[in-house]
Amino acid sequence: MIAVEKALEQYGAPIYVRHEIVHNKYVVQTLEKKGAIFVEETAEVPEGSIVMFSAHGVAPTVHEEAAERKLATIDATCPLVTKVHKEAVRFAKEDFDILLIGHEGHEEVIGTSGEAPDHITLVDGPDDVANVEVRDPDRVVWLSQTTLSVDETMETVDALKNKFPNLLSPPSDDICYATQNRQLAVKQMGAEADLVIVVGSRNSSNSKRLVEVAKLAGARAAYLVDFAAEIDEAWLEGVTTVGVTSGASVPEVLVEEVLEWLTQRGYEDVEIVKAAEESITFSLPKELRRDLRAEAAELAAKAEKAAAAVAGE
Predict the structure, then answer these.
(1) Contacts of residue 313, Cβ cutoff 8 Å, sequence gap at least 6
(2) From the candidates 87, 108, 115, 152, which is the catalytic residue?
(3) Is 108 among the catalytic positions?
């Protein structure tokens, strides 16, 4: 969201964004009001315009399409997704078969698959493992979509290892740290709460996983809402403890609105469940950083010139 806002400030509207920058209805609607235009395909962007690629990443062919249309591109791919892309390229160069654990049709999966289409096979959960075939069972590696449930991913990995005992794991965990931390917190929460409310959009993979994790952890019920107004008061019947969490890309204001909604209905005591400290921050896209630095340098030069002129007087 910040990257799109900064781009709008720097270049002015419109800024075209290929796919939703993150899967959150509030974020998308807020940015549209400020001048962002979300499109599904690069061909929808007028030639010579500015297009930003979403956090989910895109395949190399999309970069090629943008160049053909003479588009100025801003790549806002999440660094964790970029890491998976680089791993896919490296293992493909080493001629491994790559088993990509993820959900068919998800933007991130499409982008990663596009990095090495001849080497990647999608594995959509443990039930899909029986259908997987590889050229050489001794040269197989698994990678994963970053927003999956950790437990679901490892269940799929275990099934793959039973079929391919020499399956190689990636050098580091692919699951997004923010996704993992929320899932760990929801496991604690779900074991104690009668009801868990997850703030997030229905097209957000990591938000939907939180609902599943809460139920598996013991919550009697768990629901996904975009806004506090979507909560059904009937859900509170017989409920003494409510857990509240949110998807990785959800603005804090939406969570605060849910907490206020609950406070007004008697749920006033709040206990924070924290699975881990999140101290990692990501930089703005390199194209945007470059132009912001250039603008700052230009303004500094003008100020210095003006100061010299005043001194000369």
Answers:
(1) none
(2) 108
(3) yes
